[in-house]
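Anyone? Bumping this.
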Amino acid sequence: MAKLLSIIPAGRRAAAAGLLIVHLLIIPIAGIAHDIYPFDNAQQQAQFNKLSHELRCLVCQSESIAESNAPFASDIRQIIYEQVRNSKTNPEIINSLTEQYGDYIHLKPDLHKANFLIWLAPLLTLLLGSSGLVVIIVRQRAKPC
Amino acid sequence: MTARFKYAIPLGVAIAILLILWMSLRLTPSQLPSPLLNKPLPDFKLKELNEQQWVSSHDLTGHITILNIWASWCEACLAEHTQLLKLSQNKQIQIVGLNYKDNSTAAEHWLQNYGNPYSIIGFDHDGQVGFKLGVYGTPETFIIDKQGIIRYKHIGPIDEAVYNKEIKPLIEQLTSEHDYG
Amino acid sequence: MLPELGNFAVMLAFSLALVQGTVPAIGLKRKSTSLIAIASTAALAQWLMLMIAFVILIKSLVDNDITVLYVLNQVNASLPLLYRIGAAWGGHEGSLLFWCLLTSTWTLGFALLRQRLKKHTSTYILVVLGWLNAGYILFLLTTSNPFVRFFPTVPIKPLGLTPVLQDPGLLFHPPLLYLGYVGFIVGFAFAIAALIEGKLDKDWCLALRPWIALSWVLLTIGIVVGSWWAYRELGWGGWWAWDPVENASLLPWLAATALLHSLFVSEINGEFKGWTILLTILCFALSLLGTFLVRSGVLVSVHTFALDPKRGIFLLLILAVIFVSAMLLYMLRMSRMTSPHYFKLLSKQTFLLLNTVIILVAIMTILLGTLYPIVLESIGLGRISVGAPYYNVVFIPIIVPLLLIMGLGPITHYQQDALSRLRNKLLPPLLISLGVTTMVIYSLPGFHWMALLGIFLAIWLITSTALSLRWPLNLRQTAMVLAHAGIAIVILAITITSNYSISRFVKISAQEPVILGQTHVTLTGQHSTHNANFTANILQFSISETNKPTLTVNTALREYPDNQSSLMKPGINYNFWRDIYIAIGNAYDDGSYAVRLYVKPFVRWIWLGGLLVALGGLLTVIRGYREDK
């Protein structure tokens, strides 16, 4: 099935054309290669990097949006880029994407609804397990052996 | 804690994990459920392919609609084309195409060559409508009922099996729903 | 004709496995030495049969005998010889035959080198191994036979081995990983034998340890090679992605790490026997679970093999039979096996066991991340993703106490230690590591809290280990030092590379320099090459760093016409301290390219540290065999 699912060559060109416009607006310094997603400040750059690593490329299954060369990933990167430049917050951007693509696109499950267990369990078992072991060792000591 | 109970814990854990694995076998990881299922079709408005008229999401209500996302560069779309042509014989449903990130001339040629099952085609050149619909590959197919609610989504080409097992029964169900309801 | 012979050999191997599983057991009951002796003979004959089958499969691949379906699916006429051999484990059916062969190899190895154990214990072990091998071979024959013929009515043009696998990594990574994975079967058989006999003694622990350690060493190297392969092949500069299949290899590794440490406790006075047995079973359970996840198509991953629901059900059945019976046996027998305890709370044993518990929490976390989405989706709550960003967060509170205790353990005495002595012993490494960490952090560009934490933990581990040593080192101490220092280096490397890497994603045209921190990268030219089964568009980059000679790095966009696919080979320039990694994305119409550039300090130290860990394990293996004599 995956093989039949076509990926979008025309989209690539469309995205590239879109980028070109962005570049013309920013007026790159001649002779120096420029960022595909240029930002005014380091905070926005960091926000973009963090978000694009937290979202899954749905057509590649095991890569994040940041890493993939698939047209889908570059479409989503463009959306994130525009929203970051429009000073949207992380939850706003992630919500706008999960509304269309579902929670599956977010590689880091939200801390709400049924997901609290997955965040809580590691800490809880760590505390329970280590204190349980201590209790066992102390108790066994009390018994004659 | 009795000794027996303590030693039964691993057995319990093993059985629980085996049960989860058994459940997992029935899942289909390659089909991604759409969050739009059983929700109203998102609002959109765009030009028709090679026409001056506009087509909007409102045009899709009032009929049982098959919304098919396709493009002339998409090989898999050709694979499902015969199924769509067959479906277009059914006058109780309308088939709407969304021409996705395509070149309008190429799309026109493609339809001339292979036949046109669509009653309306929206021209989504920049993929904006596709994004609203959560499209990530082509072809994708939505079935929308008369009230404009998305009832079904299929990713990838519709083949004989998908048509018989999923699409045909749903269309029959929707038709009868509307007859009696 | 040959493939039919291969098929026949596999069937013979199946019968021999059954013989190995039954006849010696009868022999034990009737006290007949001749029947018991059949165990080793059957193991040898079975290994020979599987070896013959595997060689036949390789020959079919090398000869490109496309009447065999597996050959048709795996190779095409233009594939180079080495990858033809590698294709024997590049697909599902072949890798399963390879798997059976390796299981049988471990069995044979055990049959030949079982000096320490008593005759009946080792016979029980061989009986259990016989049944397990029979189960695997049955799975191979019924659902995944690599010798199935196929005569198409229309000629088919085979696509061949996917280009990602056409890399020297294919020749090392799967064999090492499988060898490690499969080896835990010996431990499982040990555990079952101990439960059947109701006895777990020092000899049992000492005999088991080298087997677990050897599997663990191979698995460690397999994981390290896999990480390095993914880094240089997948094209985004990552060395670990928390991919479900990577997790599947990490799980048994973690379990075996815990087991090795729990064995140190059990082998002294037979303490915590139940825990040791559970961990032994867990190692094998997790390696089988990994197999299930990879081969049933339940998880989507870069590694998943072709999907077939029948395989999933069969594998699940094997899993269920093995583990339900093992755990039942555990429940019934373990309550009768008492473990004496001699040690006090403040002792080396407590720290060893505490870390096995923490490792178990890590295992549980990964399992939860893997299984939780399955449960959610099964009960209709939709599909969620649990990926790298999740694990990177939840692993912090697990790793921190683990590393702190790793530093405490070696300092502490066995049985009982005094708090006052410990306090005095702890002060120097604590002060040294705080001092060194401050210096390191000060010299690094930019401050990150995570970097502070990671570097402190790594240096703490190294200094406290170093100060706990008493010269001259014996083999046991050397093994521990190497393994723990390796872990410290891995932690240090991960910390530095993830906090201090710099990257840019640029549109690059010829002769336009990209500035990347202190480094300038320029696309200087491109040319095409024609190779055995691909053509490559080579982009040449020059790298100039301040006060250093200019370097050249090639990045290739390969087209494999016969496979109808393409592959990007990133360009990597490395030295001891840093990697410069150049990956090509899409080409633009104006002849420029989207390029990802990274400078990754210390990234090689991750693999270096991993190999050091493996070396420590190897010394443990050697120590085991020495003590055996």
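Late reply, but here is one note on the structure posted above: Chain C has a mean pLDDT of 91.
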